Amino acid sequence: MTALSTIPGTDGATSALPALQLAALCHRRGDKGVEILLVSSSRGRWILPKGWPVRGQSGRETALQEAWEEGGVRKGKAAKSPLASYLGVKRFDDGNEIPCKTKVFMVRVRDMARKFPEAERRKRIWVSPRKAAKLVDDPALKKLLRSL
């Protein structure tokens, strides 16, 4: 069982306020237009690289860190402010779920690494925004991706 007191943005008590995560919407120009990077979650779903806020880092810095750790983005430029935010559910490996607000930062990808911190745990794919919207589960993220 996940202890809520260990999750940034929660105090361990039941709260109507959602926890906060920061996501990187990594994009590049491909042969057929804009492509979006999706990574596999620990449960096998396709998601954006994302994580909890890091003390001492801005939202865009955290988004870039997640893009590196989960997706292997070696060089990228993140927008200064979020493109959007959406409400969803954070699913933990132990089956627990909590409401979560995710702020999404656009990251223009310049270089990818073959080796990165979570390479053995994650798959990654580059797809069109339309295909990305079909692959992700979260309805609010689907809507965001369709709007690109």
Structural write-up:
The structure is a single chain. The chain is built from 3 helices and 8 strands, in the order ββββαββββαα. The longest helix has 13 residues, at 59-71. The chain has helices spanning 59-71, 129-135, 139-146; strands at residues 19-30, 33-40, 46-47, 50-51, 73-78, 84-91, 97-112, 124-127. α2 (129-135) packs antiparallel against α3 (139-146). The model is unreliable at 1-7 and 9-13 (pLDDT under 50). It is α+β, with helices and mostly antiparallel strands. Strands 1, 2, 3, 4, 5, 6, 7 and 8 form an 8-stranded mixed sheet that branches. It has one domain (18-146): Nucleoside Triphosphate Pyrophosphohydrolase (Alpha-Beta Complex), CATH 3.90.79.
Keywords:
single chain; 148 residues; alpha+beta; Nucleoside Triphosphate Pyrophosphohydrolase; 8-stranded mixed β-sheet
Q: Which blocks of ≥5 consecutive residues have pLDDT under 50? A: 1-7, 9-13
Q: State the CATH topology.
A: Nucleoside Triphosphate Pyrophosphohydrolase
What is the string of helix and strand elements? EEEEHEEEEHH
Question: What is the total domain count?
Answer: 1
CATH superfamily: Nucleoside Triphosphate Pyrophosphohydrolase
The N- and C-terminal alpha carbons lie at a distance of 37 Å
The main sheet comes to: 8 strands, mixed
Number of strands: 8
Q: Please bin the fraction of helical residues.
A: 10-25%
CATH architecture: Alpha-Beta Complex
Shape designation: globular
How many helices? The count is 3
Radius of gyration: 15 Å
CATH class group: Alpha Beta
Taken as a percent bin, the fraction of beta residues is 35-45%
What structural category arises from helix and sheet content? alpha+beta
